[in-house]
Design brief:
The complex is a heterodimer of chains A (about 110) and B (about 110). Chain A has no helices and eleven strands. Chain A is an all-beta fold. In chain A, strands 2, 4, 5, 6, 9, 10 and 11 form a seven-stranded mixed beta sheet that branches. Chain A has a four-stranded antiparallel beta sheet with strand order 1-3-8-7, with no helix packed on it. The N and C termini of chain A lie far apart (about 35 Å). With about 110 residues, chain B is mainly β. Helices cover about 0% and strands about 45% of the residues of chain B. Chain B is globular and about 40 Å long. The chains are: A mainly beta (about 110), B mainly beta (about 110). The interface between A and B is medium-sized, with 25 and 19 residues.
Chain lengths: ~110, ~110
């Protein structure tokens, strides 16, 4: 099993552009989490899904951010329009019946 | 509100010396506490959780509800322990929502 898969691994874009980050959870896991990591704020939960349904999106910074999970094997985090302060590493994690969260390798986003 | 505080951003110790990474939390109920670790060029992964009461890679952590702490300890540090360590809290069973501390970068000097 390749574990949680995220793409792209690196993204450089210009301010105002739309950015889409993708995640494939571990097969059979029913919970999916999106985190953002910055030097200033550390690791913050943005949103999580249970059985493809968003449960808690209180960590989503503003309306420019949106996340979807159309099926059990795919999720996206979209930023539109992107701003320089969105530059961070974005992690996706999934968990199954147990409570351990398995993390992906992250996507390093740079907004110029 | 749930909050996790790791007061040290950086910690450096010599190989063979004892290590203690501090973690304090704020939560009104009965929390579940975790330590996650990220080694260089690897993914963030679970190191240990307080309910399992086990030692992983020589590390232990005891939940002290009186002091609201969950410090991570190892009696003799090894160079391969160098990594980023995150303390995390879940407010209910299942760890559906984890609140992380800001992390401590541990460096073990030879």
């Amino acid at each position: 099993d390749a574990g949680v898969i995220q793409s792209p691994r690196h993204e450089v874009t210009e301010m105002g552009q739309e950015v889409t980050l993708r995640c494939k959870p571990i097969s059979g896991h029913n919970s999916l989490f999106w985190y953002r990591q910055t030097m200033m704020r550390g690791l913050e939960l943005l949103i999580y899904f249970n059985n493809n349904v968003p449960i808690d999106d209180s960590g989503m910074p503003e309306d420019r951010f949106s996340a979807k999970m159309p099926n059990a094997s795919f999720s996206t985090l979209k930023i539109q329009p992107s701003e320089p302060r969105d530059s961070a590493v974005y992690f996706c994690a999934s968990s199954g019946l147990g409570d351990e969260q398995f993390f992906g390798p992250g996507t390093r986003l740079t907004v110029l | 509100a749930q909050r996790v505080t790791q007061p040290e951003k950086l910690l450096s110790v010599f190989k063979g010396a004892p290590v203690e990474l501090k973690c304090n939390y704020s939560y009104s109920g009965s929390p579940e506490l975790f330590w996650y670790v990220q080694y260089s060029r690897q993914r963030l992964q679970l190191l240990l959780r307080h309910i399992s009461r086990e030692s992983i890679k020589g590390f232990t952590a005891d939940l002290n509800k009186g002091e609201t702490s969950f410090h991570l300890k190892k009696p003799f540090a090894q160079e391969e322990d160098s990594a980023m360590y995150y303390c995390a809290l879940s407010g209910h069973q299942g760890a559906q929502k984890l609140v992380f501390g800001q992390g401590t970068r541990l460096t073990i000097n030879p």
